[in-house]
């Protein structure tokens, strides 16, 4: 039986307890708080969008499952570190290389981020219909997922380099995705009527507001991961742990924010009369959820005319009928 590891120096033990173990505690608490926000958002979605298209309801259901599993994992880690090994710092440190539930943490975060990023890539495709830019962004996100899986699962590859590659690629993809979406919305707003331009303006603002927290958090995670001392834990490690745990939940909240904002945008830019509906009757859902913006100005005007006689406003980002023809 191998001898027990030597006791840690007092100064190093204090740094480990404060910045590493304390960082995990704060990160998991932040995760729990954001999961509560996400539960409220999903409850709001379920109450107001129960007639949504199937693909969106399945997306929300899977998002609920994987984010809840991430929170359950955090609670398990919190119990293990603070109850089972409350006074044994050496045993707590050994868990980071021996406990599978801790070792898969980064990979699970990467899967959640990738899942939401694919949702926003699909949204960008329906808005811009630009296959090339969407393919580039999806490739970046796939590479980021591969990098974090290599860091987590492949032999002796558990070094910070792969993690930094993952975080840098995620940040680059997020910036490109957000910028491309805003550009597509601004471009199409110049080729439509004033009312539809107002819708696109609201969607541009929503895109920036919902994406900004995740992009900023990804940047903080990348910078702090590069800056922290590899020899002795410091404040950058604590910041990296918190930001890395918060990031996947910010992605999920961003997606739900986007979905739940459709009703407010519809009300703010109503098209056509609404008073003819009987009291309490719900406005029928329309196939505007995943529609293309790539149409000529004449096509868009004809779509708006049809909208005035069918539904007050498209209920998703693009704002146009899925059946509208796309220009070449």
TrEMBL record:
Stretches with biased composition (Polar residues): 285-312
Protein name: DUF6534 domain-containing protein
A Pfam family matched in the record: DUF6534
Residue intervals of the DUF6534 domain: 172-263
Keywords: Membrane, Transmembrane, Transmembrane helix
Organism per entry: Mycena pura
InterPro entries referenced in this protein's UniProt entry, alphabetically: DUF6534
PANTHER family assigned: CHROMOSOME 1, WHOLE GENOME SHOTGUN SEQUENCE, DUF6534 DOMAIN-CONTAINING PROTEIN
Region described as Disordered: 271-328
Membrane-crossing residue ranges in chain numbering: 20-42, 54-79, 99-120, 132-154, 160-186, 206-228, 234-259
């Amino acid at each position: 039986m191998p001898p027990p590891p030597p006791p840690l120096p007092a100064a190093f033990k204090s740094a480990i307890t404060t910045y590493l173990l304390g960082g995990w505690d704060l990160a998991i608490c932040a995760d729990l708080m954001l999961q509560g926000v996400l539960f409220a958002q999903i409850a709001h979605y379920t109450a107001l969008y129960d007639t949504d298209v199937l693909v969106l309801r399945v997306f929300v259901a899977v998002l609920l499952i994987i984010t809840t599993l991430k929170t359950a994992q955090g609670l398990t880690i919190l119990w293990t570190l603070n109850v089972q090994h409350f006074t044994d710092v050496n045993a707590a440190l050994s868990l980071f290389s021996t406990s599978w539930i801790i070792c898969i943490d980064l990979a699970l975060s990467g899967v959640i981020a990738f899942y939401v990023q694919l949702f926003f890539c699909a949204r960008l495709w329906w808005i811009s219909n630009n296959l090339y830019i969407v393919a580039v962004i999806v490739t970046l996100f796939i590479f980021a997922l591969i990098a974090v899986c290599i860091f987590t699962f492949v032999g002796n590859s558990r070094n910070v380099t792969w993690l930094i590659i993952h975080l840098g690629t995620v940040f680059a993809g997020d910036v490109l995705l957000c910028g491309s979406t805003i550009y597509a919305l601004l471009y199409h707003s110049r080729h439509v009527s004033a009312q539809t331009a107002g819708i696109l303006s609201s969607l541009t603002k929503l895109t920036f507001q919902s994406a900004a927290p995740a992009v900023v958090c990804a940047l903080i995670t990348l910078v702090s991961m590069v800056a922290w001392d590899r020899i002795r834990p410091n404040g950058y490690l604590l910041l990296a742990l918190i930001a890395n745990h918060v990031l996947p939940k910010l992605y999920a909240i961003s997606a739900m924010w986007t979905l739940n904002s459709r009703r407010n945008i519809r009300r703010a830019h109503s098209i056509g009369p609404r008073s003819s509906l009987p009291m309490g009757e719900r406005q029928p859902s329309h196939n505007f959820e995943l529609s293309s913006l790539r149409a000529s100005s004449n096509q868009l005007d004809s779509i708006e005319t049809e909208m005035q006689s069918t539904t007050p406003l498209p209920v998703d980002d693009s704002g146009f009928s899925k059946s509208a023809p796309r220009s070449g």
